[in-house]
Amino acid sequence: MAGRIRDEDIAEVREKARIDDVVSGYVTLRNAGGGSMKGLCPFHDEKSASFHVTPSRGFFHCFGCGEGGDVINFLMKIDGLSFTEAVERLADKTGIQLRREEGDVPQGPRGPARGRLIEAHRLAAEFYVDQLTTPDALAARQFLGSRGFDQDAAATFGVGYAPRDGEILFRHLRQKGFSPDELVTSGLIGQGRSHYDRFRGRLLWPIREASGEVIGFGARRLYDDDRIEAKYLNTPESPIYKKSHVLYGLDLARKEIGRSSQAVIVEGYTDVMACHLAGVGTAVATCGTAFGDDHARVLRRFMGDHGELRGEVIFTFDGDAAGQKAALRAFGGDQNFVSQTYVAVEPSGMDPCDLRLEKGDEAVRELISGRTPLYRFVLGNVLTRYDLDRADGRVDALREAAGLVSSVRDKSKVEAFTRELASSIGIDPDEARAEVRRAAARAARGGGRDQGRLAQQQRPGSQQSGQQPGQGSGPGHASGQQPGGSASAAPEAPPVPNLRDPRFALERETLKLVLQHPAAVANAARDVTVHDFTHPTYAGVWQAVAASGGPAAGAADAGWTSRLRDRITDPLAMAVLSALAVEPVLSPREPDTAYVVQHVNKLLELTAARRIADVKSRLQRTSPQQDPVEYNRMFQELMALEQRRRTLREGALGG
Ligand code: ZN
What we know:
Blueprint: H1 7-16, H2 19-24, E1 30-33, E2 36-39, E3 51-54, E4 59-62, E5 68-70, H3 71-79, H4 83-94, H5 114-131, H6 138-146, H7 151-157, E6 160-162, H8 168-175, H9 180-186, E7 189-191, E8 195-197, E9 202-208, E10 214-221, E11 232-234, E12 247-248, H10 250-260, E13 262-266, H11 269-277, E14 283-286, H12 293-302, E15 312-315, H13 321-331, H14 335-339, E16 341-343, H15 352-359, H16 361-369, E17 372-373, H17 374-383, H18 391-406, H19 411-425, H20 429-445, H21 449-457, H22 505-516, H23 518-521, H24 536-547, H25 550-555, H26 560-567, H27 571-582, H28 593-620, H29 628-654
Bound molecules: zinc ion.
Zinc ion binds near residues 44, 51, 64, 65 and 67.
Cofactor: Zn(2+)
Organism: Nocardioides phosphati
Protein name: DNA primase
């Protein structure tokens, strides 16, 4: 990548990309009064609308789960983007040309904007859908019919047909004003001696972003004379299509995955369709690649968790050797992920699409609900290779299985697995424990050689290659998260008082005014200092305010709240900042200067009262005879404080 995006451009993106527009692409917002809007939170499962957006401040916050931030943060969270990716996408949307800081990486010529590539895909998808009704597409319709999909199903999933004519899409999109370069970059068009359509004579599934935008296609072979042998072809990597991130069906499954904290990973486009039609609305598939870290990251976001993975990820493997290998490989990977991973295998090896055809929707739902924990599936596979009726068979089975169990990094799981292993083999649990301990010792002596062997044996490349789009899409590389089970090691933080405690109500309300009405507050808040905030989190928010030029700076700058957020590193303070930026102020009318002055004076009055109490206490402990100078100084201070408190009170009352 080229150098860092310039700060001015990021600021401009924040200013021009309206947060309510962006959020509305994902959440239905309605007016909540006071310039605020609300809807159902996309980040957690809820029935009441706790998710607030304040367009004028460019902020969102959920009072249910605490997620909050500006338009860039929103896009990062909802679509799993990096900061730079989110800024780039918003820049394209708002027509801002991003400039980069001079970096050590030379910047190549800029390719077509994302918006152009998306538009080309939108038009291509429309074009292909239209083609599905032509006489030429008979084989495509027959294929769909043979897999149990009618016209409605095809329409729901936007299935289309790429004609056999080699450049019909190219001509169509050229007519719509796209340049050959744009079309080649998009991946829709190939270029040899001339330009040609990438997909010819194939049945097509549009692959969509979570937001519903088409970014690529998956294409199934239909004709025996197709010169490309592969049964499935996918869009090549492009600026908008990254196969390591893409999950087919996510646009349809997103809500249900969030609601149920469950995701089902199937192996192909027709399986996704079959699952959804059968009522398993959480099904997605990888496209032409194994399930990896990035896919796990994407899912984790939609499963509505904040930090660690919650919920279930269910893989539908073939029960065959490839599926078992994929499962075993996953087992050697990340343990947090593994403990939440399940496997749904149909005994006769049917995939969800076949199953729906032969046995109906109910059978598909049963397949998923009959899921098995991954570790049990893996251990089961190991044990089937031995004759457990023979003593030597049991010994060998125990030795191999114990090696697997001991490789589980989450030690809290090891005991449960060991007991289960013992009962599966039919031996005493103590015998199994001893063998697991020996296996662990062997692994330690061998420098983790057992795990290395496992990883080597089950490299993804060792599988036969690409027939179904997600061929071998086991949770192969589902690693790269935190190593398992070390959560309890963190030292306990000192308890923080409840932010909603009435003691801090005035501090909270003042900060809301500061963040939401900086212009009205600017003058009144001149005397406010960090000492006026007794809650450490509120004090932290005020410090960020002060460091960003105070409310006066905010009055003149729409991006101020975002800059404040950048100054805060404490996650709690960050969440509080976005909450304060959107929570309705407790004023029946639009807060004016008089209201704000009254408010700020009350806050200062409280500070004065606290100091009065402090000084009085010290006075009582000081002898006027022994220390007359200090006593008099404190007495003067007390008088001054009392005077200040009166002034503030009169100001607060008189306006
Ligand atoms: Zn929420």
